[in-house]
Write a structure and sequence with these properties.
443 residues; 20 helices; mainly alpha; Growth Hormone, Chain: A
């Protein structure tokens, strides 16, 4: 115990010699963004190499889907577990543990020798990566006032599209440089360890952070005090309490019915364009376009809802306005069935990913709007599990339908199902009933 106190005192003395960091919360947001970028590079390494792995191991689309499903099973179940885990042990320690886990898992994938071993290593990766979104959402609720949370969520969630855009260039470059796929998994897996150095140095709660200015700390704490319900509970709400709330189900359905569309694009886009008769090397030119569009969509959704809040709109109404835009915009995947032009495909996918990312930003920010801090990661994790279950089902269907029919029915379904998600958010995410005041806030 004395040794621990000595180390803590030394660390505090080190920070005491430094000046406060201006706008420290946005540095925190930048770290969450970088974590999401790395998270996506690690998972996209397999998807980008998919056409080569299918050829090397003589896999069908159903075989490829099986590996993806193993990742999704761990990722889906892991989000609910990880959300509770993060709420209990804290954001700093929880994200440290999980980034170490998934970085090691990514590197171990280089040892895979066939379908079964790929399934095992991807399962391990999914279990570790599942913590990123619950932890990042909780960090936003700890560090950002309501009027900025849309922007903050947009910032960290945009890392998924940036990571998705970087991965093809990085991974294919490594594949060509080393003449094989194994080094790509090793090199991309090391990125998480580099990120941990900055994370361990800079992330602490705002109440006790040694590098936050007095003005910024006061602004953050004042926003918390102005919440309709004070943050005084000593435990997270039970799962049984949370699932009784329609708001919880609205958030779960928001992701369950939209995230599978995004993961279809991230996991299958390379295989889809090859199925359209386009060479993978040529497709890389346009591969990044839907991902950059998603990045812009994150900031559009977060920025638009924050702008509406500043204009006097209730928080709930501002979030729902963006949800409507996103649900309608995703229907533009339907015209892709009528073209094989690379840039027409990339453009239509881009409009849809822009709309999806706007919708997704609202689905991610709603837990921090609605729930008390000690339950934010739990609810975010539950919605992630719903998204994972939806993605597992859709991945199996994609593999089967694309092998036995074509990708066209998949794209039509991917355009229409998010509309149902939009309607369920509008119906279920509403102001609280009197008896629920100890769990969630008015928005």
């Amino acid at each position: 115990m004395r040794k621990v106190r000595t180390v803590a005192t030394t660390e505090q003395n080190l920070y005491a010699r430094r000046r406060p960091i201006s706008s420290l919360r946005w540095w925190i947001g930048g770290l969450l963004f970088a974590s999401t970028v790395i998270n996506y590079i690690d998972r996209q390494t397999f998807s980008v190499l998919g056409p080569y792995l299918k050829q090397d191991y003589h896999w069908s689309n159903e075989d490829f889907a099986l590996v993806v499903i193993f990742f999704r099973i761990a990722y889906a179940g892991g989000q609910t577990i990880a959300g509770r885990f993060i709420d209990r042990i804290g954001t700093r320690r929880g994200l440290t543990i999980t980034v170490i886990w998934y970085s090691i898992s990514a590197m171990l994938t280089s040892l895979a020798v066939g379908l079964r071993s790929f399934c095992v290593f991807r399962f391990m990766l999914g279990a570790g990566e599942s913590a990123n979104w619950p932890a990042a959402t909780k960090a936003v609720s700890e560090w950002f006032p309501k009027r900025e949370r849309g922007w903050a969520v947009a910032l960290f969630d945009s890392g998924s599209s940036i990571g998705g855009a970087i991965a093809p260039l990085l991974v294919l470059g490594l594949y060509r440089l080393f003449g094989g796929w194994r080094p790509a998994f090793i090199i991309t897996g090391t990125l998480g360890f580099l990120w941990l150095i900055a994370w361990r140095f800079i992330y602490y709660p705002p109440e006790s952070h040694p590098l936050i200015s007095d003005a910024e700390r006061e602004m953050i704490l004042r926003d918390k005090e102005e919440s309709a319900v004070e943050e005084t509970a000593h435990r997270p709400a039970r799962w049984s309490e949370l699932i009784k709330l329609p708001q919880t189900w609205g958030i779960i359905f928001a992701r369950t019915l939209t995230d599978p569309v995004w993961f279809f694009i991230t996991d299958w886009f390379a295989i889809y364009i090859v199925a359209k008769g386009i060479k993978l090397e040529e497709g890389v030119i346009a591969f990044w376009i839907p991902f950059v569009a998603a990045d812009l969509g994150n900031f559009f959704g977060g920025g638009m809802s924050s702008w509406l809040v500043r204009r006097g709109w209730p928080v709930g109404r501002a979030r729902k306005a963006v949800v409507i835009f996103g649900g309608l915009g995703m229907t533009l995947l339907i015209p892709t069935v009528f073209t094989s032009n690379l840039f027409a495909l990339a453009g239509l996918f881009a409009v849809s990913t822009f709309a999806y990312a706007s919708f997704s930003t609202m689905a991610l920010v709603l837990p921090s709007d609605l729930y008390r801090s000690e339950s934010v990661a739990t609810v975010s994790g539950m919605s992630g599990t719903g998204a994972g279950i939806g993605t597992i089902i859709s991945t199996y269907l994609i593999g089967y339908v694309s092998d036995h029919y074509s990708f066209e029915p998949i794209l039509i379904a991917a355009s229409l199902i998010p509309l149902l998600g939009m309607l369920l958010v509008l119906l279920l995410v509403r102001n609280i009933h009197k008896g629920d005041q100890n769990l969630i806030r008015y928005i």
